[in-house]
Amino acid sequence: MAVAFGGAFLVAWLSWRTRDNVIETAVRYEQVFWAAAGVLVMTGIGNLGAFGASLLEPSTGWGTTLIAKLWLVAALIMVSLPRSLAVVLLASGARTRPVDLRPVYTVTTSIFATIVALAIVLANG
Amino acid sequence: MSDAPRVNGVLAWVLGTFHTSVFGLALLLLLYPRGGFGAALGNLSTLSGLAIFLALWATTLFTTLRALAGLNWLDDDPAQMAVFFRRAFRWGGVNGMLFLAALGAILLLTALATAPGSITPALIFFVFIAAVGLVVSYIVGAIVGVTLGALDIAALRVARAVTRSGGSSSRD
Question: Which domain does A82 fall in, by range?
Answer without folding.
Answer: 2-123
